[in-house]
Design brief:
The protein is built from eight helices and seven strands. It is of the alpha+beta class. A hairpin with a 5-residue loop joins β2 and β3.
Amino acid sequence: MNNVYSDEKTVEAIASHYREILRLIGEDPDREGLVKTPMRAAKAIYDITSGYRKDPSEIATQAIFEHAGSQIVIVKDIEFYSMCEHHILPFFGKVAVGYIPDGKMIGLSKLARIVDCYARRLQVQERLTSQVCHLLADTLPNHGVIVACEAGHLCMKMRGVEKQESTTVTFDYTGRFAEDPSLRQEFMSLLR
């Protein structure tokens, strides 16, 4: 059975660390409301970081098909949830992926799966954007790939600077998108 929690020893080890964290912050891990918290938190973090146990290249190559059409293909509003590697706090938002096919196309659901694979790791938004872009550029025959990501970061909202309305936008692009600013503009206008 291929289950997120199939590695029970790993999850149990993570739970023991959460139990110790609870103790170190001044809580009683044996308190009624917290008795099951270490295991719940361990299962949650194991699930949230499932991208480490997946191969994004394999995901990308599972569904590449012949295609003679489109000037540009865009999938937008791909929601994602990730964890900031600096504070291990959530950041989340939406990704838009565009590419210019070169005789091949990728199954649309694979784009969302690739985003999830990279997002479900300890991450920074800039790297997430770049990883999605360059994986597609390297595995899918194309004339250019562009990726836009907009996210809110709890490390900025609930601690530190505490700016509730802040969002971060990142872009990466290759091929014709890098060469031709009008293509980047077309992508941006199609996102609206």
